[in-house]
Amino acid sequence: MPHWALLGFLLLLPLLTVAELGLQANRTFEIDYEGDRFLKDGKPFRYISGSIHYSRIPRFYWKDRLLKMRMAGLNAIQTYVPWNFHEPLPGLYQFSGDQDLEYFLQLAHEIGLLVILRPGPYICAEWDMGGLPAWLLEKKSIVLRSSDLDYLAAVEKWLGILLPKVQPYLYQNGGPIITVQVENEYGSYFSCDYNYLRFLLNLFRQHLGKDVVLFSTDGASEEYLKCGALQGIYATVDFGTGRNVTEAFLTQRMAEPKGPLINSEFYTGWLDHWGEAHQTISTEKVVEFLIDILSRGANVDMYMFIGGTNFGYWNGANTPYAPQPTSYDYDAPLSEAGDLTEKYFAVREVIGKFEKLPEGPIPPSTPKFAYGKVAMKQVNTVEETLDILCPAGPINSTYPLTFVEVKQYFGFVLYRTTLPKNCSEPVGLSSFNGVHDRAYVSVNGVPQGILERNKVFSINITGKAGDTLDVLVENMGRINYGDEINDFKGLLSNLTLGSVILKDWLIFPLDMEGALQHYLSSSAACSENPSSSTLPSFYVGHFSIPSGIPDLPQDTYIQFSSWTKGQVWINGFNLGRYWPARGPQVTLYVPRHILVTSAPNNITVLELEKSPCSFQEKCFVEMVDKPVLDGPLFSSKKKVVSSS
Q1: Distance CA 123, CA 101 (A)
Q2: For residues 243 and 241, what is the distance between their CA atoms, to the nearest angstrom?
Q3: Annotation says 185 is catalytic
Q4: Active-site residue 87, yes or no?
Q5: Which position among 87, 110, 126, 185 bears the catalytic label?
Q6: What does the pLDDT look like over 268-306, one tens digit per residue?
């Protein structure tokens, strides 16, 4: 039986159970310090790995993506474990479906890929709050990533759940995991708390045993390694094509004079931000540096090998506040949709110069289908839907409360009060950068403007005493890197009208997902008399998969021509944020497994600013077969505030 046929046969078998993994025990993976290398089962070993984040790829496509990585010549993969993805509320653990980490590990093992596991507890990863759960911020003074006792207690509890789950999958126990990272790029963080690192080291040893290779990753500089490295944890570095390879590895040698050379994150591309140009790194540069790294006998992980998608609200942000878009394509060898690229084949060719490539065909790119335009109808404004979005009713508070204080960790909160005085002439509504992150303001249902973090601190409004002032605040993603990861959301300070502090708020935490399941996705909910298309509003449309065409449904992309900014769901699946009015991302990836052929597919859009819909003409979204990630950019209004 040829190699590829055998591999295909194996993939049809049930995945190995934990008990069956254990039958493959008596294996070893260790560092040979004298030989400056790893030893796997006593023999010299070098990993050539690629990063894949299971949290950014639907379970439906895990096998496809992992097979393509194996056929590129990789012998390992690297993945993060986002704590907030698995414990969204304290004590609520989710490890099934798209969150089934053990299935992912089993699948990698079956396909013949070793695993470099990065369980954090902090991961960065351009992921909301660097993977830390927002509910940690319920203690306002908490010092994250430190020896803060409340933080340590939460970490100890979480790792007490996670690490026993992955322990059976260690290489020594018959599984695929060869190394495990402790924390992540800790040398870049301000606290420099060695007691915290020692606490983690003891926890990892307690749960995973003394034989597993634990490692740290830091930027290739002496400054970062000073606070990121700790005895008992093997220090590695990360760097991309902008760095001299010799100098970078000499930096690692400052922390680890002997042992394998390792670049734990060799950047094949780079991340994007809304309002900034789409980032790419040329294939030629990636090839040049990969050859240099491998020629030295070094171990390497390509970050990313496939980026995937920030579905829902999972994107992070950098400072000064700059949120990342929905796509995490990263200009990686495999595209966001798992497509084979020029970079993929170039990297595969390089690997083939150093290692024997697997035999057999490479799984092809998945086909895409343009389902065409889908007519959209306005359902209702957010204000008109509050009884559905917040069935428990509002919270009363003299002054505004943050998202965490009302236990709303993602999405939207609506703040409502009344105008204390007449504003027949425009009066300034202001917050000294206390809006995190974007607030859509209306008076008696009339849009007044938008306040935006770091950009727009004041707008002029008009109205009468007693009029209803609504401030819909959007959490656009928490900071994932640096000193400001304790990123509170909502109205963090008082709003003032002129010189008057606004008080007596009704605060509505909005349950978007629940409302979609029970009401908003129904076309019967459409309003006969739609309100203003410039208020935050829901829109619904439906499309059917064409019959008579084989192999449908297929992947597609949704495009928002003439729409502004918002959130979109298909059949209740939260695809993420769109913002063509800021750019550069124009289309959102739609994986085929969320589409149905048995009934019309539902599209629900929350447009926050201005839709193309009007009373005279229909408006559309369009399902297209090609992504647009490098669309035009539109600058936003910025307000410069003195720091003195």
Answers
A1: 16
A2: 5
A3: yes
A4: no
A5: 185
A6: 999 999 999 999 999 999 999 999 999 999 999 999 999
